[in-house]
Write the structure tokens for this entry.
Amino acid sequence: MTTAIEIEDLTKSFTLRQRAEGLRGAMRGLFSASHRTVTAVDGLSLRIAAGERVAFLGPNGAGKSTAIKLLTGILHPTHGHATVAGLVPWVDRRRLAHRIGTVFGQRSQLWYHLPASDTFELLGRVYDLPRAEHRRRCAALVERFAIGEHLHTPVRQLSLGQRMRCELVASLLHAPPILFLDEPTIGLDVEAKATIREVIRGDSERDGRTLLLTSHDTADVERVCDRVVVIHRGRLLLDEGIETLRTRFLRRKRVILHTAEPELALELQGVRVIDRRPHRLALEIDVDVTPVEAVIHAALSGARLRDLTIEDPPMDEVIQAIYARAEQQHQGAPP
Amino acid sequence: MRFAIALLATNLKAAFALRGTFFLQAGLMLINNLLFFVFWWVLFERFEEIRGWRIGDIAVLYGISAAGYGLAAVLAGGVQDLARHIEDGDLDPMLNLPRSVLVQAVAARTRSDGWGDVVTGMILLAMSGHLHGLAWLTAPLGVVVAGVVFAASGVLLHSSAFWLGRVEGLARQASEFLITFSVYPPSLFGWQVKLLLFTVLPAGFISYLPTELVRSFDPGMLVMVLAGAAGYAILAWWVFERGLRRYASGSRFGVRD
Amino acid sequence: MNGKLLFVASLSARQRLAERGVLIGRAVFYGLILFVFSRLWDAVLEGEPIPGVEAHQLVWYLAITEWIVLSGPPLHSEVEDEVRRGDLVYRLARPVSYPVVKLAEGLGDLLVRLCSLGVVGVVVALVITGRLPAEPARMLWLVPLGVGAGVLAMVMHFTIGLTSFWLHDCRPIYWVWQKAAFLLGGLLLPLPLYPPWLRAIAEASPLSALLYGPGSLALGLDTAGIWMVLVRQLAWLAVAVVGLAWLFRRGVARLEIGGG
């Protein structure tokens, strides 16, 4: 399988000049400057194969955006190496632009007062796409993302969900093998989020497009991606498939019991009550201490079960737990 | 540069999409400029000639300056936002497109009020009484030169943001100075100011030399005018590209992650 | 009520004083204009002197008119911003009327500008002309005249800002008003030098009380004349305030109908 993105010991440090307060400070700043070095990305190494859908996670300030900027050629690294679609981003930025697409949830590349079709037209010129091919591709994408009826409405009159679909079409017009997505579902309602995730994943599966997604919405991660990379303080903390992530890092299950009796008493080791209501009991089970079947067995011997649900804990909690543990280790480690 | 033309076309389409605003801004700018010119008219009603300059000459000076400024506002309307874009990191998406960042930034928008300035210039040039013979060529040329120098000075000024951070207010102030000086004949000033007007604050290239060119054609002056404009444009482009390199190294003030 | 407004004004003044970069920039621009125009007047008068008027008087005249122009706080852009951002709706809910508070803020700004630019103006005009105007003590009348003019300008700027209830961008209107003020107020050229028909229009407008009136102190205005200017400033101020109140009420009504 071909490698889409290869990162080796990528490091980016910033020297921030400390600006002192007030006029006197500004004057002093002209003659001397106190510097502070911040390492945003620290020796990152990673390999992403073509067609993979990878999520980049990390708290704010962890270095995700800096890493993305390095990979798209916006920033130059302090040292280290990377290849994206066979090119070194900061060396071949313009050539690379033909091979990557970018979607920023907070920044639009659509012209606000014009219909999306005008932006698509302009992008055809930007990427020097042959007219016939451009038109064909445009039509195909419009159908795939279902924006046909919105094509000729000024963008400012579209809903956020419709706008995001147009953004996606705009980013894919030049058929890039790699797509970078930054908060693609931000601000969208539940239904729109679901549609966007579906459509992004579907497009990737169909065309074999490599996806690199950053998002604070873990549902985005779950629905779209197959692999999760967690960045913490500029370093690679974790690189796992989604399933293994859950099973390895949170040995917990949630069980919801619906009983015929209004109440059920259950005292077992490693079992915590999350929510208690008449006829409904929600439990969290540490499967390392007590297996799920033991809990169910105990429940059955104390009541008649009408319904039973066994769930994995939400991804949010998994991620939170990972961060928390990493922070703990960081604090505990010698400076 | 088919891309630049396409970008401009899209810009104009977007500006015209809000028809009312477009005409209002352009129209008011026209009135605004003509009202200011009435001062010169009143002055010359009272004093027919000032150091060899008559109302017709001032009309050419003001006309070229206004039309040039308007041209820059229409074709390079993004210049006045440049410092802010640099500070806010808005150049990032432009770096992700396979096109010159400078062209994208400069042509990011078109200012509708610039059309008012262009029309002002055309009216004043037409009424100046100097439009005969070669002037039909040198006047539009002068306007183009003025526009190029206005845009280039703007780019130079705003590019300082790559090194100095928040310069928006300063850049705006300096632009105002430039405009102010470009509507008064340099013959008013001593050699020190004149030197300034051909170097740091190139009002001399914007309006004075082109006006002289229109009044009485001189091939030597033509060369000077073209060379000056080209020089400024190249300098602006070079400084911007250097600044962009610095931008990409990320060592600006207070870089956000 | 008055104590509150005084506080608002002083807070605004303190804030402006802290914006040193802006103050310096404005002072430099002011000095530059005086410089450019002193050269213009030299050039004009060497060709054809005006009976009864000397170059230094014209420089001091400009120093006064430009001082007033640069001191008038640009409330229009502040109001436009507040309307556009929707902040205005919240400010309307406060116990004190929005225009009154805004004008109090503007007053603080006005006083800072008048004082800072006043000093610069005197120094630069002195350096350029090498002398004080005849009867320098009369210049003290500039305090009431300048403040009067500044308040009048401020009220007009505010009114222009209110048009942003209807328009997307009120700046072009401001520029047109400003140029009209330059022309009819006699910013650069004193009104007596105008062609008679234009002079008549100018003197009928409030703008002559704004600029020419105070400026004519440099040209030897007598005490009776000074009082006339003050009366006209106050009269036009009353008209402007009525106009502002009317426009404000219309604007708020529009806001309420539109649902903010």
